[in-house]
Write a structure and sequence with these properties.
By secondary structure, this protein is α/β, with parallel strands linked by helices. It is built from 14 helices and six strands. Strand 3 (about 75-80) and strand 4 form a beta hairpin. Residues about 1-25 have low confidence and may be disordered.
């Protein structure tokens, strides 16, 4: 870790306190990764994590995250370790993905492109678009929680749900837990959301503001719990359809005609609307 990590690391205490209000029974660690040696060490730790259930839950942040924007941070929550690795793409650029672990001789690109190592995203489309367009990474072995939620519904599959709705609706959080999560999100939004007076360049500021680190970690920490909820609800008839829809979603995001933004993105894939 370089000295640039000192300020983000200093924010961990307050961040853990805030997230502890929402996930009180889990010890968590946030690891800021902005040196190639730290990337290699992280890869060695996550490369052999269990696949059943999935161990890796991933999200990305950036300015206009897509082929038309930039990538700044990749968050990887490793469920068995209860740790979130925040990879500093802004500082390390492609070295984040190409640096190999000294023990495994594997890279993050190897992890992301592996069909065997399962990775869980929520709405993988723009993440996949950005990874493919800027770094040539072709995601494989993906589960998309947004599509899992859709397939697990008993009815009305016309529109997709956003992550905030899923967290509030499906995790059974208390009022206090929802408020704690919302406060953490709001602090980050105030720094980067233009409609709230912020700027997306907040993801590129180093050292990263504590509020931005809190925002980055807040959502990805919930993904394993959502996976458990939707996995229990899925029926056998939906699983092959869900797998095909997820693979199609990744392929579409890598196509020349993919549009990262638009109202049509709220519509469910036709293959998952009806049996």
């Amino acid at each position: 870790m370089t000295s640039e990590a000192d300020a983000p690391t200093a924010a961990v205490s307050s961040l853990t306190t805030s997230l502890g209000q929402v996930l009180p029974n889990v010890d968590k660690a946030e690891i800021w990764v902005d040196a190639q040696s730290a990337v290699g060490d992280a890869v060695d730790k996550i490369i052999d994590m269990p696949n059943e259930p999935p161990s890796l839950y991933i999200d990305l942040e950036g300015t206009n995250l897509s082929r038309d924007g930039t990538l700044s941070i990749m968050q990887v929550f490793v469920d068995p370790l209860k740790s979130t690795y925040l990879f500093d793409i802004y500082t390390l650029k492609s070295a984040v993905f190409t640096t190999r672990g000294p023990k495994s001789n594997r890279s993050l690109q190897d992890v992301l492109e592996s069909e065997v190592i399962r990775k869980v995203f929520f709405d993988v489309r723009n993440d996949s678009d950005a990874l493919f367009s800027h770094h040539g990474i072709q995601l494989r072995g993906i589960a998309d929680l947004q599509l899992m939620e859709l397939a697990a519904r008993p009815q009305d599959r016309r529109l997709l749900s956003g992550l905030a709705k899923c967290i509030k609706k499906d995790l059974g959080l208390s009022v206090a837990e929802k408020e704690a999560w919302a406060r953490g999100k709001a602090r980050g939004l105030a720094l980067f959301a233009p409609e709230r007076g912020g700027s997306y360049q907040a993801f590129d500021q180093r050292p990263l503001a504590p509020e931005m680190m809190e925002y980055c970690v807040a959502d990805v920490t919930f993904l394993p719990r959502l996976w458990e909820v939707y996995e229990r609800r899925l029926t056998a008839v939906w699983r092959p359809k869900l797998q095909r829809a997820t693979e199609a979603r990744v392929r579409e995001s890598q196509s020349a005609t993919y549009k990262p933004h638009g109202r049509e993105k709220a519509l469910a894939p036709r293959t998952l609307v009806w049996l």
